[in-house]
What we know:
The structure holds two protein chains of two kinds. Chain A is of the alpha/beta class.
Amino acid sequence: MSGVWRLVRDGSLDPVANMARDAALFHAGEVPTLRLYRWRPESLSLGCFQSPEAAEAAAARRAGVPVVRRLTGGGAIVHGDEVTWSLTLPPAFRNHPVVRGPVPESYRRLNTVLLEALARVGARLTPPPAGAPAPCRRAELPFFCFARASVTDLVGKSGKIAGSAQRRSAGRFLQHGSIVLRPPSFGPPAGSLEAELGAAPPPDALEQALAEAFADVAGTPLREEPLRPAELATAERLAAAVTVA
Amino acid sequence: MRPTDVRYQKTHEWVRAEKDTAVIGITDFAVEHLSDLVHIEIPDLGVDILAGEAFGEIESVKAVSDLIAPVSGEVIDRNEDLIADLEPLKNDPFGKGWILKVRLEKPAELERLLTAEAYAKEVERQSAEEH
């Protein structure tokens, strides 16, 4: 299936670098890439249509928490002790089995990968039970992503543990998501792998499990490589677009 | 049955030429694939959009998708009712769900677009690839 895909393990980066790299891969990436990364310092990311003037974002800035804008929609996320993944595909892969079809179906397929990875570190999560229909207006959605679990998320006994968001443009695909190791220091109460398992798995172990599960479930070998110089240059150029003044 | 008096593109936008005005929207197939639409961002009056380039964004509960311009031109009208309530996209994507009107600058751009018949085949092809 579709040859070797790339694995990028970026370790901990500042929030602008993290979102600018995902943006560069989405807009200009030439190979399918699974990117795994973390956040230092603890940061707040806003959905692309959320206002940086919102009270919660202003409070974060006052508390010294950096705020960044995502390319994807949905609610704000406090990125503390977590492992974040992003999958970006160039247009030639628009009909790859992992991502093709209606949006909810592509989530279900990618959740299969996440569930397998989480099982490998001992966590048994599920999508939440189908509840009330989704709201029809963004204003009806909570400010924080982790304040609400939809059928495309993964929950445990302690609450929502994995959430993600997707963007598509003329055949290009990005989905990125957070897997919470320990609850962040502010924001709504969130579930965590620490609460599920008694101790959070080491981030390296979870990243390894994600890479292996992705390769197994997607049937796609992954080759670990860093981002290319041209991709890093694109990320530099896009930094302003994700920066929240 | 989709209207035959509009042209379509593979990324699921449609355009209806009315003299030198082009009315632009997205198809029922796009609406169905995105599911649970919550928000749309479209350009202001006077902005020039360019065929093949993103002119706006539409957000569903779990995905943001770029809207790709089927033709070039200056925005001369926006469907403000749609910005307030996306329901018409579900019920009437080719009528009350129109998104923008632009002054058609290059009528020849319409010729590159798909007829209803060709678009139906394209949707069939894309659906087959999904299964």
